[in-house]
Amino acid sequence: MRRYIAGLILLGLALAPTASAQDHGQVGIYGEYVRVQQTSTSMAGLGGRFALNANRALAFEAEMSYDFEQAFTEGFTNTGTGTVTLQRTNMRLLQGLFGPKLQTPHGPLRLFVTVKGGFVNFRLDPQPATFSTFSSSVANLRSQDVSGALYPGGGIELRFGPLGFRLEAGDLVYFNSGAHSNLRLTFGPALNF
């Protein structure tokens, strides 16, 4: 019995360095840019993501972002003079995505690809963009117009120990009377644990 316990202790000590070096997951925040093709609107906002690694090359990731209202300019000609009018759109975008992420398993520079599914919610809201309007958007999500979404993307991640910085680009496709492709870019810090 003592040999069995001593063997388990030695095995545990031998595997301890690899276990501590193993990546278990990642949590991060990001800035986001989405170019909505249907309305030619550029949206920007903030989001957060959480990932758990199945192994060093495969992670399952969930993320949610909130894009604030955006302004657009429109010009017209009136008797030979051009006038530019600035108008608020009050359009906001809430999205939630979940799916696998395949990544290169070693080194400080990691490449990855992902395919996620989820939802996109477009809304017109004249209230100011604050934390309370975000939380009411999430709370009222079931009563609002929600479209299914598919997001194929990829990017690069730089790691410096437990800290990292991630750049990602992809196609945010939402389904509402057909499929609509939209450019999506994200960037931000991450903490690996």
Description:
The chain is of the alpha+beta class. The protein has one domain: Porin (Beta Barrel). Helix content is 15%, strand content 61%. It has two helices and twelve strands. It has helices at residues 2-21, 131-139, and strands spanning 25-36, 41-53, 58-67, 71-78, 81-88, 91-103, 109-124, 147-160, 163-171, 173-175, 179-180, 183-192. An eight-stranded antiparallel β-barrel has the order 1-2-3-6-7-8-9-12. The longest helix is centred in the N-terminal third of the chain and has 20 residues, at 2-21. The two termini are 35 Å apart. Mean pLDDT is 81; it is low at 15-21.
* N/C terminus separation: 35 Å
CATH class: Mainly Beta
By CATH, the topology is: Porin
As for the number of domains, it is: 1
CATH structural architecture: Beta Barrel
The tally of strands reads: 12
Mean pLDDT: 81
Biggest sheet, open or closed, and with what strands and sense?
A: 8 strands, antiparallel, barrel
Shape: elongated
Low-confidence stretches: 15-21
Q: Which class do the helix and strand fractions yield?
A: alpha+beta
Based on CA atoms alone, the radius of gyration comes out at 22 Å
Strand order of the largest sheet: 1-2-3-6-7-8-9-12
| Helical content (DSSP H or I, runs of 4+) | 10-25%
The helix/strand order is HEEEEEEEHEEEEE
Q: What's the total helix number?
A: 2
How much strand? over 45%
